[in-house]
Amino acid sequence: MRPDMRVVRVVARLLIPLILVFAFYVQFHGDYGPGGGFQAGVIFASAIILYALVYDTPTADKILHPRFLRVMMSLGLLLYILVGLACLYQGGAFLEYDVLTRDAVHGQHRGIFWVELGVGTTVAAVMISVVLTFFGYSEHHH
Amino acid sequence: MVIASDHLVKKLVGLSIFQTSVFLFYISIAKIFGGSAPILDPAITHYSNPLPHVLILTAIVVGVATTSVGAALIVRIHEAYGTLEETEIHIQDELE
């Protein structure tokens, strides 16, 4: 167990929910504002990494099991591909969002939303798993 | 910092900063004052070139991957040699 870092713990407890909310804001406003899946994924992962740094890594490892993270990585990519295939199925080109709904602008909106959600899931899972792997490695070997 | 410092972690940090400066250079080339995002609209006449942005987006992702590979290598080097100073690693290599 690490030494008692009371100030860091209290500040982290305050910050983690805010970081998560900001991640979702960046995720869902990425189509018109600055942001999107990459940024939101990294911000989401930074909240989890902060938790693993300040509190204990084993708990973070237990909640976000490496196998679960690997599944999330693949699911994000799968969602991206499925959106592309849905466009093909509706008679458009791969990832041509216009054909997703009757109205082209609405189709663009919906297509980008799901693609960005897939990107965000994959990026968050990859970033968390990279950092948790390093943490777990050092705890195993020392 | 990549060449000047002997410490492997500092080399990696220096490499990251160097990489980021290249990213900023590319992004600044593509930026036009008053230029808009690449959304086709009759009201918009000036666009920032989106190609360097996409190029750098990929480069950032690759940069994260290479940095983590570098960090993993440093962890293993520290395990094998017990030090992160490059000269000490070379001395240990020559003694063997």
Description:
- The complex is a heterodimer of chains A (about 140) and B (about 100).
- Chain A is about 75% helix and about 0% strand.
- With about 140 residues, chain A is mainly α.
- Chain A has one domain (about 5-140).
- Chain A is elongated.
- Chain B is built from three helices and no strands.
- In chain B, helix 1 (about 10-30) runs antiparallel to helix 2 (about 50-80).
- The radius of gyration of chain B is 20 Å and the shape is elongated.
- The interface of A and B includes residues 127, 130, 134, 137 and 138 of A.
Give a quick set of tags describing it.
heterodimer, A: 142 residues, mainly alpha, 5 helices, B: 96 residues, 3 helices
Give the SSE map.
The complex is a heterodimer of chains A (142) and B (96).
Chain A: H1 6-28, H2 37-54, H3 57-63, H4 66-89, H5 104-141
Chain B: H1 8-30, H2 50-81, H3 86-95
Helix pairs in contact in B: 1-2
Shape of chain A from CA axes?
A: elongated
Mean pLDDT of chain B: 89
Order of helices and strands of chain A: HHHHH
Q: Which protein chains make the most extensive interface, counting residues with beta carbons within 8 Å of the other chain's beta carbons?
A: A-B, 7 and 9 residues
The helical percent of chain A reads: over 70%
Short description:
Chain A is built from 5 helices and no strands. Chain A is an all-alpha fold and 142 residues long. The mean pLDDT of chain B is 89.
